[in-house]
């Protein structure tokens, strides 16, 4: 199985597609009658360049999903700003037009992210409701949907089936197709392989790599799996209790982490190796998804 060679210099020179500037997000919850504040994003600033895979890592509760939700417009920030393609899309108290269709998300577990009562056709056409009629007509036809299913490795007849008729890996392929149906520029991948078997994980990562080249995508990849992060990402941001403590090229982060927390995070993962991650992809059996 061939892995696509990435032109890291071209990616490093690319223009920003997503910029977070001092983004702040607090949650207030009641615990035994007492109001407790959690700072889920604390003055977070980073830039994602067009065409790159930007990893976000950090222990559970460090704020990874909160950042993805803010970029998706599912939550509003309490402070700071988020810009996409040079335009502010999120800031406190302002609701600028959100670029629906241009940013999409793939969630961790396709069992819960796909509606079990919808056939694949309906699942794929749902996101098109938010885009222009021209785009809807172009990408929502049966022929376009069948082509997209082929691009994620599923047969045309899948269109008329329900999610429970597919394996876990196939369901994640449907979720990826749903994310791509609007032809987004940016896709947020929130632990897209962690609910899958190891061999299937490798196939899904390889699929994401080939789709990135085919569709000209930029990814933000949220993961706990440092082996996959090292293999898949161009740069990585490390979150610790809502703060971004380090952003570095992947090789630099793994060979010379500058923050104490990053070192602890890497020390806590004894089993990864770059060669191991590559072997994982090489050895993945065809057709097992
Ligand atoms: N809707 C919410 N209401 C209250 N607290 C929240 C909410 N969403 C997130 N939090 C809190 O914000 C913090 C960051 O959570 P978040 O889910 O972003 O972390 P994470 O790094 O994605 O964790 P995981 O890896 O477990 O998914 C946590 O303390 C969490 O409990």
From TrEMBL:
This is Peptide/nickel transport system ATP-binding protein/oligopeptide transport system ATP-binding protein. It comes from Alicyclobacillus macrosporangiidus. The keyword ATP-binding applies. GO terms for biological process: transmembrane transport. PROSITE patterns: ABC_TRANSPORTER_1 (PS00211), ABC_TRANSPORTER_2 (PS50893). GO terms for molecular function: ATP binding; ATP hydrolysis activity. Residues 18-266 form the ABC transporter domain. InterPro entries: AAA+_ATPase, ABC_transp_ATP-bind, ABC_transporter-like_ATP-bd, ABC_transporter-like_CS, P-loop_NTPase. SMART domains: AAA (SM00382).
């Amino acid at each position: 199985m061939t892995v696509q060679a990435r032109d890291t210099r071209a990616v490093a020179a690319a223009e920003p597609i997503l910029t977070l500037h001092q983004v702040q997000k607090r949650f207030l919850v009641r615990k035994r009658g007492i109001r407790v504040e959690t700072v889920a994003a604390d003055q977070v600033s980073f830039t994602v360049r067009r065409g790159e895979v930007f990893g976000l890592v950090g222990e559970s509760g460090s704020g990874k999903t909160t950042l993805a939700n803010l970029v998706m417009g599912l939550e509003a920030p309490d402070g700071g700003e988020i810009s996409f393609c040079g335009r502010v899309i999120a800031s406190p108290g302002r609701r600028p037009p959100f670029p629906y269709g241009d940013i999409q998300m793939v969630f961790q577990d396709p069992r819960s992210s796909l509606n079990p009562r919808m056939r694949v056709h309906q699942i794929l056409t749902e996101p098109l409701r938010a885009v222009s009629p021209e785009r809807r007509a172009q990408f929502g036809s049966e022929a376009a949907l069948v082509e997209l299913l082929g691009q994620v490795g599923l047969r045309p007849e899948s269109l008329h089936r329900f999610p429970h008729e597919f394996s876990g890996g196939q369901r994640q392929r449907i979720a990826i197709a749903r994310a791509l149906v609007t032809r987004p520029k940016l896709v947020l991948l929130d632990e897209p392989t962690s609910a899958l078997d190891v061999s299937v994980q490798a196939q899904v990562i390889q699929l994401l790599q080939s789709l990135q080249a085919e569709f000209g995508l930029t990814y933000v990849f949220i993961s706990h799996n440092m082996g996959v992060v090292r293999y898949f990402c161009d740069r990585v941001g490390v979150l610790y209790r809502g703060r971004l403590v380090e952003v570095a090229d992947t090789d630099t982060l793994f060979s010379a982490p500058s923050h104490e927390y990053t070192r602890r995070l890497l020390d806590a993962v004894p089993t990864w190796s770059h060669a191991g991650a590559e072997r994982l992809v090489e050895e993945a059996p065809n057709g097992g998804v």
